[in-house]
């Protein structure tokens, strides 16, 4: 067979191969890889944790939170893009303590992620046991970000982990971590100062679900009930449970029911109409939109304490 005839027979394959080369060279890098590779890639489950990592890592890290703004971490369902992001991440920071339920375990398995690259912050912040009778005896409360001083413990863990992975930038991470811890101390002082202006007998808190135990313990409030039983939002309350809560609100003279954007306030408003209480919305399991009063953790907690103060003073 002549050389010319062999080339002709293989022409279709050669044309196809060349086209693939041309197409691959024109695809933007961001489409060939889910996450950028020049920076340390960090994935977090919570957008609150993502804010801490961004504060510590600065321009040296790329941070991607799995949970969008306003999403419920208790009931979130990851997609295929989340699997790819986790697979490419240098480290994944999770809250743990049951916040992500079973969806994080499935996600790590699907991404074939080395469990050693998953850092669970909640285990290292002196967590509080769940007080609700609706929860297992060995359950822990994951909402530790309501206590800024426990957030400092989480920040320390983040600094250590980033420094271990990216030793060249460890001094920068340490310096930024120290600065951020001071911001958190200042936040805690502001919360304490406003709390001191609220009469102790008026510091009774009813919430959408049991989120504020850490806050109550740290600053001298009393968490007296919640719309959704327990620390999760995955089970709606029964009529009997709502009736019991309404009775408790009346009995204790609770004036305010605090709700949050991640769940409907329909049930809270129903109880409020029965008892004469008001409904006030706080930020809890998620930051607010960009440029909002709750766009960062510090701003979120400042917004919350101002709302709490105005509601209870």
Question: How would you describe this protein?
Answer:
The protein has eleven helices and eight strands. With 313 residues, it is an alpha/beta fold.
Topology, please?
Layout: H1 3-26, H2 29-32, E1 40-44, H3 47-57, E2 61-65, H4 80-88, E3 91-94, H5 103-110, E4 118-120, H6 148-165, H7 170-196, E5 204-207, H8 213-219, E6 222-226, H9 239-252, E7 256-259, H10 266-275, E8 278-281, H11 297-312
Parallel strand pairs: 1-2, 1-3, 3-4, 5-6, 5-7, 7-8
Helix pairs in contact: 3-6, 3-7, 6-7, 7-11, 9-10
Short description:
The chain is α/β, with parallel strands linked by helices.
Largest sheet: 4 strands, parallel
Q: What's the end-to-end separation, in Å?
A: 95 Å
In CATH, the topology of the largest domain is named Rossmann fold
Relative strand content: 5-15%
Helix/strand order: HHEHEHEHEHHEHEHEHEH
Contiguous helical run count: 11
Shape: globular
**What is the CATH-assigned architecture of the largest domain?**
3-Layer(aba) Sandwich
Spans of at least 5 consecutive residues whose pLDDT stays below 50 are: 1-33
Count of distinct strands: 8
What's the CATH class of the largest domain, please? Alpha Beta
Q: How many distinct domains? A: 2
């Amino acid at each position: 067979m002549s050389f010319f005839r062999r080339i002709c027979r293989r022409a279709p394959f050669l044309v196809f191969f060349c086209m693939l080369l041309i197409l691959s060279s024109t695809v933007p890098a961001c489409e060939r890889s889910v996450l950028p590779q020049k920076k340390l890639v960090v994935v977090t489950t919570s957008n609150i944790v993502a804010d801490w990592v961004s504060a510590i890592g600065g321009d040296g890290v790329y941070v991607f939170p799995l949970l969008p703004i306003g999403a419920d971490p208790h009931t979130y369902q990851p997609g295929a893009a989340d699997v790819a992001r986790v697979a490419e991440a240098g480290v994944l920071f999770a809250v743990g303590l049951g916040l992500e339920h079973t969806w994080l375990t499935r996600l790590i398995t699907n991404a074939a992620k080395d469990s050693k690259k998953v850092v669970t912050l909640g285990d290292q912040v002196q967590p509080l046991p769940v007080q609700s009778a609706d929860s297992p005896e060995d359950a822990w409360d994951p909402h530790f970000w309501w206590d800024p001083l426990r957030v400092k413990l989480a920040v320390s863990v983040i600094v250590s982990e980033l420094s271990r992975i990216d030793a060249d930038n460890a001094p920068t991470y340490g310096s930024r971590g120290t600065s951020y811890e001071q911001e958190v101390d200042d936040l805690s002082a502001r919360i304490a100062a406003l709390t001191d202006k609220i009469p102790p007998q008026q510091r009774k808190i009813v919430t959408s679900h049991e989120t504020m135990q850490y806050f109550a313990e740290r600053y001298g409030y009393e968490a007296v009930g919640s719309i959704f039983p327990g620390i999760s939002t995955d089970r709606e309350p029964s009529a009997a449970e709502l009736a019991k809560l309404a009775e408790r609100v009346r009995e204790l003279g609770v004036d305010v029911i605090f709700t949050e954007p991640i769940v409907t306030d329909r049930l809270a408003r129903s109880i409020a109409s029965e008892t004469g209480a008001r409904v006030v919305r706080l930020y809890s399991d998620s930051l607010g939109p960009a440029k909002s009063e709750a766009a960062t953790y510090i701003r979120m907690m400042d917004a919350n304490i101002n709302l709490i103060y105005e509601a209870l003073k």
